[in-house]
Amino acid sequence: MVQVSRRTGFTGSALIRLLARLTDIEVPEPKQAFADRLSQWLGWTDAISLSAALNGGLAASSSGARAAGNPEARECERVRTAIANAIAEDMHSIARDNTTDFAAYRRRYHARQQAMQTSIGPLRGRLRSTLATRSPDMARLAAVDVVMEQVLSAQEHRLLGSIPAMLEKHFKRLGQADANLADSDAEPGAWLPVFRKDMHDVLLAEMEIRFQPVEGLLEAVRAS
């Protein structure tokens, strides 16, 4: 079995810690506060939109009746479970092929990313619509989330889009390490299940990152 570094000590999201471990890259703790780093991603037009939302300058929906029970939480759980199941099914499917061509894994990863975006984006929008009916303050929060999604979507796409390239390096390193053990008693090809498990874990960690805004909105809906 091919082993990879299990370095610990870096604090951050599960996705960052996992990628740092798989790529064996030292990721330093950020020196700037989150707000300072976020400000670097905001253009002046973004700042105006955000200010308008914070000051209630965007139209708020009128108050409406609350849905019985908590259908929002049930829908979030349904979407999360569907995504996790699809990831698991993908891994089972590609395991049957047992391919050593990373292109197949890249296609699967991109497909899962697109599916996550297609499922989570509308869910986030529905939560905002629900939140906007609760009170003027909640409507303002929903408006802020609209602006934040517009501002950060390009950065999110760029950063998450770089993950397959990181996985490819991990894939090649595991394959090369396995080839170096060709004359040993190690079972050939044992690295492929290791890689598939790592890819599965990275996809789940990415799902959690994408769900963070949804979780925040859901908490606001519950609190309202």
Low-confidence stretches: 1-11, 57-69
**How much of the residues is beta strand, in percent?**
under 5%
Please give the largest β-sheet: none
Label the overall shape. Answer: elongated
Mean residue pLDDT: 79
Helix/strand order = HHHHHHHH
Give me the secondary-structure category: mainly alpha
Helix fraction bin: over 70%
* Backbone CA Rg: 21 Å
- Work out the number of β strands: 0
How far is it from the N-terminal to the C-terminal residue, by CA? 51 Å
**What's the helix count?**
8
Key structural traits:
single chain; mainly alpha; 72% helix; 0% strand; elongated; disordered N terminus
In short:
This protein has 224 residues and is an all-alpha fold. It has a domain at 70-223. The protein has helices spanning 14-23, 34-39, 44-54, 71-97, 102-132, 136-161, 163-180, 191-223.
Task: Describe the SSE topology.
Blueprint: H1 14-23, H2 34-39, H3 44-54, H4 71-97, H5 102-132, H6 136-161, H7 163-180, H8 191-223
Protein name: DUF3348 domain-containing protein
InterPro entries: DUF3348
Describe this structure as you would to a colleague:
- By secondary structure, the chain is mainly α.
- The protein has a domain of 154 residues.
- 72% of the residues lie in helices and 0% in strands.
- Helix 1 packs antiparallel against helix 8, helix 4 packs antiparallel against helix 5 and helix 5 runs antiparallel to helix 6.
- The longest helix is centred in the last third of the chain and has 33 residues.
- It starts with 13 loop residues before the first helix and ends with a helix.
